Amino acid sequence: MRVEAVTDRLTSRLTIHRAPWLLPIRHPPLADGGIAVRAGRIVDIGDFKQVARSYPGAEIIDHPDAVLMPGLINAHTHLELSHLAYLSQDPSPTSFTGWIGHMLAERAKADADKKTIQDAALAVLVEQQRQGVIAIADISNTDLVRELIPEFPGNLLCLKEYLGLRASELTASLNSLKEEAGYPDYPEVYCTAHAPYSTHIDLLRALKNRAIQLGQIFSIHVAESTAEHDMISQGTGEMREFLEQRGFWESSFQPTGSDSKGSVSYLHQHGLLDSRTLCVHCIHVTEQEMDLLAENGAKVCLCPGSNRYLGVGTAPVEHYLRKGILPALGTDSLTSNPELSIWREMRLLAEEHPGIDPADILRMATLGGAEALGLDRQLGSLETGKAAAISVVKLPESVQNAFSLAECLVYQDIKSNSVYSLAYPLNFY
Ligand SMILES: [Zn+2]
Predict the structure, then answer these.
(1) What are the distances in angstroms from CA 96 to CA 222, 237, 306, 315?
(2) What ranges do the domains of the chain cover?
(3) Which of 9, 130, 243, 309 has minimal Cβ neighbours within 10 Å of its Cβ?
(4) What CATH homologous superfamily does 72-372 map to?
(5) What sequence ranges are listed for the domain Amidohydrolase-related (predicted)?
């Protein structure tokens, strides 16, 4: 009698989810697996029969023809640009700076209408959730997306972006940064920088220092185009001309002075690379710069869809993996990517890098993203103690083994109608 009572108490409100496949991410895929969940936490995971034996009387929920995997992480997007989605329906631009100029001009036209911006952002947010995305790092210049945090049941991390290269604007930028609300009253207020080519070095330092003091991640666009590389390394080229034409150039800007030292070297030289620095894009990076990223534990986020549309090149993904860097994946915005889907990002990356194990690509979209956002204690893999942020993805009948499972998930164009989420965790920020 007493034993029964104890067992009842232990198993109360405990549910076991059973599926033909589990994809734990940190461990090999499991056939006929079970995940025991209580109060939004994974309490056990393994062979279904073993898990079921450990929790007699638990409710069992079957997910036939499906794989259970961790929620996806979108480590880089700009939801507040969603209303400009028509830009990426045009043919790819002929130059990176031409695209920036066009995007800024279109944005200036439409920026007045708050409702249009928020409605478009919310539509993307809802679709991300439907696709099984559990955490998002969003970059914006306004507070419009931050107001949408309650609409997303996962983790929507809003980073307010600062930029401005000119020394004459520095004091104003630093003053407004000082006035930003922060932890503990507003722990969700993150401030970050646009890019090394658009942000004065003193402003970069101030933003990074703020992030360090608040224990926050610091996200920045890095090594996205050759135009950026030429300016950062030699102070010349298309980007400098673009900035000069618009009156944004700063004559005191100090390039690294070496063709082999681009934005990663520049950030390192100024002490801005550490384990909470999230370098987004990282396409034009030398072997030595990859070592700098690895040695400093800096995080990398790749955006294959945006890179393809803008024609800026492909990141050296194989090299990153070889150096022990597990990149995250991000969609970037609808202005540079015709579709915002981490599933599509995985497929594009696999097409461009056919030698990479599909299991590694799945790790990028889950664990890589969780590490990049500092959420890997809660998200990114299915493990005992982590949040039960589990996605159920319907599988075609053809999946026979672990390899074809990973291949199928990466190459199959998975849409939101074949995914649903079992549970969303509370916001961990
Ligand atoms: Zn971006």
Answers:
(1) 14, 12, 12, 16
(2) 2-70+379-421, 72-372
(3) 9
(4) Metal-dependent hydrolases (3.20.20.140)
(5) 67-401
